[in-house]
Design goal:
single chain, alpha+beta, Ribosomal Protein L9, domain 1, Ribosomal Protein L9, domain 2, 3-stranded antiparallel beta sheet, 3-stranded mixed beta sheet, 3 helices, 8 strands
Length: 148
């Protein structure tokens, strides 16, 4: 049975692909869960229109992300933290702290977009990557200073 995928399915294809599958797999799994539609000429035409709209939307989102990345690359955040012996921080600087500092500067960035593998636990300047888009990553500078 020939179908058009509406979602990415492992070992089968990506959205918009026309694939052949067994009738039972299509009838009992893909079609009821709306993961695919029958490959009729009307559906093929509709999928092509959706695909071209998605390409335009993707280009616009990437353009916006690149503009935001240029703005963010010039941002330096300063964080004051208490320091103990041997210049060791009490606590750490987390992605949530960085997101709040960015919000204070007028940038609304979700903390999950901050690609911080673990919290910052030392003084000095750190580059923090922000994944704005699938293909666009911006870097901001976070300066951790000693609180007086």
């Amino acid at each position: 049975m020939e179908i058009i995928l509406r979602e990415r399915i492992d070992k089968l294809g990506v959205r918009g692909d026309v694939v052949n599958v067994s009738a039972g797999y299509a009838r009992n799994y893909l079609l009821p869960k709306q993961l695919a539609v029958l490959a009729t000429p009307a559906n093929i035409k509709q999928i092509e229109q959706e695909r071209s709209a998605a390409v335009r939307r993707e280009a616009l989102e990437r353009k916006d992300a690149e503009a935001l990345a240029r703005q963010l690359s010039q941002v330096t955040l300063q964080v004051n933290r208490k320091v103990g012996e041997n210049e060791v921080l009490y606590g750490s600087v987390t992605s949530m702290d960085i997101a709040e500092l960015l919000a204070a500067k007028g940038f609304t960035i979700d903390r999950r977009k901050l690609d911080l593998p673990e919290a910052i636990k030392s003084l000095g300047q750190h580059d923090v990557p922000i994944k704005l888009h699938r293909e666009v990553i911006a870097f901001i500078k976070v300066e951790v200073l000693k609180e007086e």
